[in-house]
Every structure is written in structure tokens, then in C-alpha cells.
């Protein structure tokens, strides 16, 4: 028993096993193998390392956006002149990354709480029975009193009177001057993994430059000041069309950075996308076109609470920050190399399938690749001093035993080389 344990440990620590290999000289199989290996190599170099940059680690940014609109609008409605500044046409006014610029509106002035007839088309009636008192209609303006107003043939409601009439949207838009408003975007990003912080006010963008520049994709791609008309144009919309009923535009600030080079090369790019609001084109068949909302300004007049209601049509702007930073890292590099080396095994599997199952002389290759063994017990093995009680008789291919010349075979099987070394260990 002690001898067996010693021999087992000796075999484990001082012997090395390696797979048996057969060299096959076959043009077709050789070409298939090299083509597969070449394809795998091209995939590793071209896709994994060059395109996907598998040798780098990645990180996304934590970002903050601040905006500021500038510009003055002018309207003259029925002889009533008015100037609109930023406090009047930007909602909300805090400078968020999502805001609305008013381009058109319907105003209802002097509303007070009382009873008045509903708007035509909202709830028509022919008698008081058609107006159920105390009920509401989803599209109505208030609570029905149960009275049918003969002059308008509509139900009377308790609401802010006079009720709003929004059937006729001003055309052309009242604030076409909004086309010349300017938008300033200030964006800061931080990549926590790489401990890098950048701002869209990059090197060379100072107060003097900002006071004069206006963003242009070719001439001034880094200028953070944008003309509203240019934003709408680059998003694919017509300004007068979207200004009439409103819409939405997305401004994408893209930070794609490679920190294997100097950090100063990490600069933003700006892209503009029309999200919705073009009734003359893709939105024509939709049930609801454009973008609008209502807000009211309340005041007291002769101790009576009143309000001015505005239905605002505007361009909603959403600023979206996208980011992806890369930097060399040994761990993803080794992972990519290791996975690539593993894929090289595909060539061996495919070639073995071709050799053993597809070629006409597949039986010959099976005999060359596999050894079939017989085991038998030798009764006098111990008397001969052998370390083992089992020996192996290896079957050789009959064509090899006869020494048949295979050099003229079209698949060159004679070039298949097999080498075997048998060792028998004796006891001391």
C-alpha cells in the first residue's frame, strides 16, 4: 500500500501529460483551417480591438445642465401693442434642461367666477332637460346649473367667465420674432471612474468669445449659444409650422472621450432632433398635434378676484446629455485576448468534422487520430519485476504495417505522420 501511494504521488508530481497530435497534410483541410483562423484574427483585431476598443474600460458621466434664453418679442393684436421678454415667454423660468418657449397664444382677459353660457359645441341644448344640474362634462369649462341659455342654445355653467374660445388659433403665429431668440447652454460632466471633470466651456471659450459667437456646425461647433431658428431648422422642422401649434425638439450634448490622449481633446458635440410637432408632415394623422398648455395670472379688481388666461403654444426643448469615456485597462485587454485565443479552437473543431465525417477517406483519418487498445492481465508480470499488471497492445493501421507507399494518394495521406514512444518502468 505504501509503495502504491508513493508511486501515485511520484506520478502526479513528476510526470507530464500532453495530447497526442497527428499532422495531416491535406490541401483542402489546411486551407479551411487557415481561412477560419484568418477570420478569427480579423474579428479580434478589427472588431474587438479597433471598433469596439476592447482594450479600454468605459465610464458614463454625471452631468448638470443650465440654460438661459435671451431676446425680446413684439405683438400687435387688434391695436394692442405688447413687448414680451424672457420672464413672459419662458416656462419655467429657472433655467432647467427642459423648458418651453412660447411662440403663439390665445388670451382670455378679465375672467371672474360666475355663471355664463358654455361655449358652442361643448354642450348644446334645446331645453333645460338637456342640462343636468350639478354635473360636469369632461371637455366643458365648469359645473352645469341646469339652465339652457336660449341665445346660445348651450348649457349655463358655473365657471370662470367669459369661457375661453380656443377654436381659432392665430395664423401666422403671434410671436414669429421668437425665431431670433438665443439659447445659452452650460453643461458640466464628471466621469467618476477616471476622476475627470469637463465643461462645454472648453479651452478657448471665454467671456469675450461668448459675447460674439453664434453656434454653427462648421464655423463655430463649440460655441454654446444657439439661435432658436437655427435649432428648429437643424432639427428638420419649419419654424412657422411648429411655432403655430407648438412641438418638441431634443438637443443632444454628446461627450465621447478617449482619455488615452490629453484630456483637453475631450469636447462636446451638439445634435438636434425634431421629436414631434410638424402637422404638415408626419404628425398629420395624429389625434393631437403640437404642444400647448394653459396658465393664468390672477389679480384683484374692485375687490373681485379676476384672472387673465393664456393658452400657450410653444416649442418644448429637452436637452439630453450622452456620455461615454474610455481609457486603457489591462484587465479588459487580457480578457479580450483570452476570449480571442479561445475562439481559435473553432478552426480545430471544424477541421476535425471535415476530416472525420466529410472527406472520402474519413476512415483512414479516424484510424490515424484514434488508437484502439486491448487490455489483458499478464499472470507472470510480477515475476518479471514489472511495476504494472496491465500492458497495452496498440493496433496499427494495416496499411502502415505493410509499409504501403501512399505518396501518390491525391489527399497526401502518406504525409500523415504518427510517432509513438512506449515506456515501461521496472521496479528497483
Automatic annotation (TrEMBL):
MF term (GO), any: ATP binding
UniProt keyword Membrane, yes or no: yes
Membrane topology: Multi-pass membrane protein
Subcellular location: Cell membrane; Membrane
Pfam families documented for this protein: P2X_receptor (PF00864)
Keyword hit for NAD: no
Disulfide pattern: 116-161, 125-148, 131-155, 213-223, 257-266
Predominant cellular place of this UniProt entry's protein: membrane
Family, similarity comment: Belongs to the P2X receptor family.
Function recorded in the entry: Receptor for ATP that acts as a ligand-gated ion channel. ATP-gated nonselective transmembrane cation channel permeable to potassium, sodium and with relatively high calcium permeability. Furthermore, CTP functions as a weak affinity agonist for P2RX1.
Protein name per its UniProtKB record: P2X purinoceptor
Organism whose genome encodes this protein: Seriola lalandi dorsalis
Amino acid at each position: 500500500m505504501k509503495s502504491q501511494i508513493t508511486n501515485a504521488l511520484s506520478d502526479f508530481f513528476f510526470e507530464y501529460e500532453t495530447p497526442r497530435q497527428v499532422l495531416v497534410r491535406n490541401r483542402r483541410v489546411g486551407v479551411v483551417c487557415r481561412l477560419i483562423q484568418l477570420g478569427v484574427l480579423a474579428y479580434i483585431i478589427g472588431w474587438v480591438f479597433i471598433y469596439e476598443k476592447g482594450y479600454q474600460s468605459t465610464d458614463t458621466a454625471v452631468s448638470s445642465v443650465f440654460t438661459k434664453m435671451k431676446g425680446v418679442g413684439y405683438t400687435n393684436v387688434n391695436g394692442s401693442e405688447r413687448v414680451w421678454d424672457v420672464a413672459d415667454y419662458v416656462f419655467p423660468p429657472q433655467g432647467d434642461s427642459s423648458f418651453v418657449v412660447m411662440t403663439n397664444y390665445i388670451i382670455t382677459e378679465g375672467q371672474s367666477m360666475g355663471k355664463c353660457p358654455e361655449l358652442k359645441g361643448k354642450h348644446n341644448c334645446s331645453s333645460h332637460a338637456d342640462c343636468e344640474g350639478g354635473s360636469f362634462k369632461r371637455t366643458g369649462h365648469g359645473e352645469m346649473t341646469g339652465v339652457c341659455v336660449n341665445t346660445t342654445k348651450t348649457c349655463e355653467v358655473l365657471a370662470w367667465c367669459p369661457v375661453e374660445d380656443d377654436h381659432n388659433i392665430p395664423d401666422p403665429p403671434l410671436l414669429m420674432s421668437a425665431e431670433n431668440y438665443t439659447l445659452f447652454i452650460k453643461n458640466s460632466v464628471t466621469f467618476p471612474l477616471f476622476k475627470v471633470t469637463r465643461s462645454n466651456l472648453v479651452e478657448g471659450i471665454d467671456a469675450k468669445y461668448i459675447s460674439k459667437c453664434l453656434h454653427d456646425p462648421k464655423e463655430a461647433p463649440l460655441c454654446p449659444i444657439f439661435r432658436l431658428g437655427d435649432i428648429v431648422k437643424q432639427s428638420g422642422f419649419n419654424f412657422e409650422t411648429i411655432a403655430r401649434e407648438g412641438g418638441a425638439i431634443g438637443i443632444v450634448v454628446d461627450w465621447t472621450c478617449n482619455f488615452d490622449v490629453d484630456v483637453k481633446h475631450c469636447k462636446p458635440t451638439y445634435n438636434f432632433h425634431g421629436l414631434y410637432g410638424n402637422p404638415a408632415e408626419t404628425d398629420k394623422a395624429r389625434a393631437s398635434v403640437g404642444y400647448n398648455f394653459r396658465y393664468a395670472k390672477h389679480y384683484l379688481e374692485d375687490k373681485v378676484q379676476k384672472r387673465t388666461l393664456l393658452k400657450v403654444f410653444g416649442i418644448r426643448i429637452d436637452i439630453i446629455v450622452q456620455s461615454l469615456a474610455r481609457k486603457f485597462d489591462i484587465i479588459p485587454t487580457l480578457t479580450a485576448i483570452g476570449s480571442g485565443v479561445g475562439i481559435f479552437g473553432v478552426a480545430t473543431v471544424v477541421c476535425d468534422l471535415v476530416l472525420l465525417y466529410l472527406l472520402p477517406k474519413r476512415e483512414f483519418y479516424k484510424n490515424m487520430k484514434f488508437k484502439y487498445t486491448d487490455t489483458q492481465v499478464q499472470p507472470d508480470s510480477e515475476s518479471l519485476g514489472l511495476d504494472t499488471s496491465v500492458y497495452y497492445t496498440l493496433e496499427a493501421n494495416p496499411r502502415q504495417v505493410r509499409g504501403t507507399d501512399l505518396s501518390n494518394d491525391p489527399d497526401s495521406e502518406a504525409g500523415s505522420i504518427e510517432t509513438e514512444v512506449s515506456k515501461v518502468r521496472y521496479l528497483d
